[in-house]
Aminodeoxychorismate lyase
Amino acid sequence: MTSDVLPPDFKIISSLRYDPALAVIGKQRAAKSSSDPLSTPYYLLPYHQERLRNAATCFSWGKALAFLKQDTNQFVKFLDAFIPDDTKPWRLRIVMDSMGTCEVEVNPTTSMDPLNLLLPSDTNPQATIWHVYIDSECINPSVFTTHKTTARHFYTAARFRSGISSLLEQAEVLLVNPAGEIMEGSITTPYFRRRNAAGEEGGPVWITPPLSSGGNAGTTRQYALAEGFCTERIIAATDLVDGEECWLSNSVRGFIRGKIVLMGSNDPHT
């Protein structure tokens, strides 16, 4: 796709958490890999660079791609200039246009247990559980669902249909493609516990929708796959059960417990 078919104010984006607590985690993991995605206070920063590069390539934005090819250490120095206080956590929104202009929006965010930024385990059970709804309408997969951009009206509409009125609300809605497959969440990647397929060894495993279902190539999704927390498998919306437990993740909040709420069944919005 070329930029001349896009709205004039169209931009590619990536949101992430700055957290000084990540410096401690990075030191503990340093011996594991020199290219560890948790090696800076910017949560999964190498994956965000990759996500932005992939989007710039998709839209044929050569100038943006040239800027994004700087190494992670250089990018850290660029982002550091926007941090008001490096002792506090912040929510960053990296915004790039076709000319390679990079803006960084920085807003306060709440402190949290840094364990929530690591893969889910019994050591970080989390008391908070989000209600997870299933969108009542289907959304056609496109470059706008594959890449994170300012074209987000369909996510907003899905949240509205599910009765979610604020980003502060502890609730999520899962997008569904015309084939009836779960694509992703409006602001998170979902994970579900399933038995292995016939002929496969082992107990139940965590799965997440494949990109072929049309969802976003999220950074926490990439982290969960790379670390072996989950595998990819097509998930039919009709297979989800009311009250079913799941996990959600994004690069500002880390990993969050969720519970499927089918509309009309223990639904706080009805």
Observations:
- The radius of gyration is 18 Å.
- The chain has two domains: 3-111, 129-260.
- The mean pLDDT is 90.
